[in-house]
Amino acid sequence: MAKNKDDKKDNKTDDQVLQPNQSLTPEQQAIFNRASAETAEWETIREDQITDYSLSVSPLDLKQNFPEAWKKQVEKIYAFRWCERTDKRIDELTRGGSPITRWKICTRITTPFMAHYIDKMLGCVARLDQILLHRPWDRHMIERDAQTRLTEAHADSGQPERRALRSEPEHVEAYSGPEYKIGAKDEVQYEDAREGIEDLIVEE
Fold first, then answer.
1. What is the rounded CA–CA span in Å between residue 116 and residue 59?
2. Angle at Cα 138 formed by Cα 133 and Cα 141, nearest 5°?
């Protein structure tokens, strides 16, 4: 008898698990409904359905998934970028640094033209583990130009001779090689080529 009671109890528990709970939120209820409708059968795939190019489209691709944002960027009104969905990274990009370099989160207020993409739980445009940020195109270009100049300056400073010659007058000449007894491990030395001046300028 005890065994039959246990079996009946287990069956009752299983039945209760399959019953919808009145305390579920609308989103949880929707998930429950879909889970209840699942079957063990798989749909038949036709030959013309095997190649699905939609799988190659990244959910973060602006052009394919957010044409309104893509249009604003092409028209050079706004620049967009994705940001890791952590409070630390969001603060770095939206609150840190100079006001020129800061971004804003895409919300119903900041980007009303993207209101239909807003995640209802987060209040912003979110995909995967990223949220979408934007800023005016002119501010975006100010930072890009500054980064370009910094990169070029860094590349030009790679050669010690070029670095010294750029900071010294044109009459300074560089000397290196065994005939001047300057080895590879020695500091680069520069001699002023003007007549009567023979002091060595040592690169620090």
1. 16
2. 85
Q: What is the pTM of this model?
A: 0.52
- Summarised one tens digit per residue, pLDDT across range 107-155 is 999 999 999 999 999 999 999 999 999 999 998 898 888 878 877 776 6
Q: Are 134 and 79 in contact (CB under 8 A)?
A: yes
**Euclidean distance between CA atoms 86 and 96, whole angstroms:** 14
CA distance 6 to 12: 10
Expressed in angstroms, the distance from the first to the final Cα of the chain is 95
Report how far residue 110's alpha carbon sits from residue 114's, in angstroms, rounded to the nearest whole number.
Answer: 9
User: Please, what sign has the CA dihedral across residues 41, 43, 45, 50?
Assistant: negative
Hunting for tokens 């520069």 — which residue is that? 190
> The tokens 């690169």 sit on which residue?
203
3-state secondary structure of 61: coil
3-state secondary structure of 130: strand
Ranges assigned E (strand) in 55-199: 78-84, 104-105, 126-127, 130-136, 172-174, 189-192
In the chain, % of residues over pLDDT 90:
33
Tell me how far apart the alpha carbons of residues 204 and 199 are, in angstroms, rounded to a whole number: 15
Annotated domain spans of the chain: 60-148, 159-202
